[in-house]
Amino acid sequence: MLSSIYQVARKSLLLAGLPEDAAKAILERARVRETERGATVFLQGERAAAVYIVIEGWVKLYRIAPNGAEAVVGVFTKGHSFGEAVAFTHDAYPVSAECATDCTLIRIETDAILRMVRDKPEFALSLLSATFAHLHRLVAQIEQLKAQTGAQRVAEFLLELVPDDASGKVEVKLPYDKVLIAGRLGMKPESLSRAFAKLREHGVKVKQNHAVIEHLESLRDYAEEDPATAWQKG
Amino acid sequence: MLSSIYQVARKSLLLAGLPEDAAKAILERARVRETERGATVFLQGERAAAVYIVIEGWVKLYRIAPNGAEAVVGVFTKGHSFGEAVAFTHDAYPVSAECATDCTLIRIETDAILRMVRDKPEFALSLLSATFAHLHRLVAQIEQLKAQTGAQRVAEFLLELVPDDASGKVEVKLPYDKVLIAGRLGMKPESLSRAFAKLREHGVKVKQNHAVIEHLESLRDYAEEDPATAWQKG
DNA sequence: TCGCCACCTTGACTTCGCTCAATCGGATTC
DNA sequence: GAATCCGATTGAGCGAAGTCAAGGTGGCGA
After folding, report:
1. Same domain, A155 and A138
2. Does A132 reach chain B within 8 Å, measured CB to CB?
């Protein structure tokens, strides 16, 4: 395994808490998998066979509702792991995973996970912290869906792309295509378009896959504003 | 600890997978707590100090968004545990917990959890399965919010209250007040009212805190129908 | 038994996001 | 350079759900 790949995997929440030798033991058994955009990693309902770590590219986790609608539940990139929670049992995946771009993934068989948990029980704690991170993300997503308008969710999405130390005027690159952004934010592409248009009033200009935020702080204010009282500021 | 309380706690996902002696060891150190409706169990941002198991009553987990809106993230009752994921670190609770009715809770200190994990590492797997159950619930909730109309979510909510073996005509009791039901389903009480009104067309009659479902199967069909094509059936 | 209060329902209006459909723009191909 | 194609945008119309405000309705205490 290339050292650059190893380094990325090592920093994932799943492995970060482990001592060097344990991480090494796991990654030695793991396989690197190169996939194309659109490739399915696994499907909901499938028996869980592996945990994955994203090395490069973007993977979307989604569910197909009984009525056929697709609900995006998460989008992961470099250094993120997924499928942990289900790995230690032989349960079914509750979601499907698909590559939103060409990807490099690491695949760790559940057998390896189980063996590892048996050998070094502390490893279960790593599984737990990774799972907790997912839990936290989902809670945040529910909060967004329930408490914010579409445009506000888009604003928040943009703000998440901004480096922590930035301020004032910033330019960010949209990480994946707009259909997926829309899905991730629980709206249709048309609505995303209109949301971008609305954000122009708040100093956001979008051109292709780049967005310029004129003033970070005021966009933050907008994202956290109460939708019900927004009309007050003529 | 009363044997009846012990029995309920023992069946929770958190303890169900453990051998008798381990469960006993944990519950011996735990405390039973009686709370009144409206009591706060913990607040989001608080440092996690304990895991809870509901013995009796209903507890709501919620988040307050920056704009002040409340998003209900889960509602738990007899035999459910919450707060596990965060217990093994000294992280902050990502949500707040409040009693929606008078409750009997069991409180297990994180110290006891940590000691337990150290003594019997398999216990971490119990934490994991309980956490995974929460994860799964949240994913289902996101799917509902994104893929169903309000009335359909209400229908699904009612269907979850129905015993598995039922069919045809059923009567169910609404477990908590309508404000909370509305919150749980991501809508305002007024919208819940209107949703109930709409469900009358599908054989659902609501009176006080009782609902009569005229025909289970057709309500299921309605809940899973594609909102976009619902108009087709005059 | 009366009146009050909390909870729920209903009505009128507004806003938001979806659908359907037309169009645009940039990129690729011939 | 023209033809074409796909993703993105824009417009019109509609329905779902939110807001604000006005009535119920039932339970409980005086």
Report:
1. no
2. yes
Average pLDDT of each block of 10 consecutive residues along chain B (234 residues)?
88 91 90 92 94 95 92 95 86 94 93 86 86 94 94 95 90 93 96 94 90 92 77 48
Q: Please answer yes or no on whether A147 and B71 come within 8 Å at the CB atom.
A: yes
Q: Is the pTM of this model over 0.90?
A: yes
Q: Is B230 on the interface with A (CB under 8 A)?
A: no
Residues A89, A38, single domain; the answer is: yes
* Contact across the interface for B131 and A132, Cβ inside 8 Å: yes
From CA A121, how far away is CA A50, in angstroms rounded? Answer: 19
Instruction: Report CA-CA distances (Å) from B71 to A5, A160, B24.
Output: 39, 21, 36
Q: What are phi and psi of B209, to 5 degrees?
A: -105, 30
Query: How many A×B Cβ pairs under 8 Å?
Result: 135
CATH code of B209's domain: 1.10.10.10
Which of B120, B145, B170 is the endpoint of a domain? B145
B138 part of contact set with chain A, CB < 8 Å: yes
Helix, strand or coil, per DSSP, at residue A107: strand
Statement to judge: residues A61 and A30 lie in one domain: yes
Residues of the domain holding B166 = 148-232
Q: How far is the CA of B140 from the C1' of C12 (A)?
A: 35
Q: Which two tokens stand for residue B117?
A: 């994990």
DSSP label of A92: B
Residues A100 and A51 in one domain: yes
Which chain A residues touch B143 with a CB distance below 8 Å? 63, 65, 71, 73
Distance, angstroms, CA B177 to C1' D30? 27
Over its C-alpha atoms, chain A yields an Rg (Å, rounded) of 19
> Is A211 within 8 Å of A174 (Cβ atoms)?
yes
Q: How many independent structural domains does chain B possess?
A: 2
Pair (B29, B125) in one structural domain: yes
End-to-end CA distance of chain B: 59
If you count them, how many residues does chain B have? 234
Q: Which residue has the tokens 């799972």?
A: A131
Express the helix, strand and coil content of chain A in percent, nearest 5 each: 45, 25, 30
Q: Give the model confidence (pLDDT) of A102-145 as tens digits.
A: 999 999 999 888 888 888 888 888 888 899 999 999 999 999 99
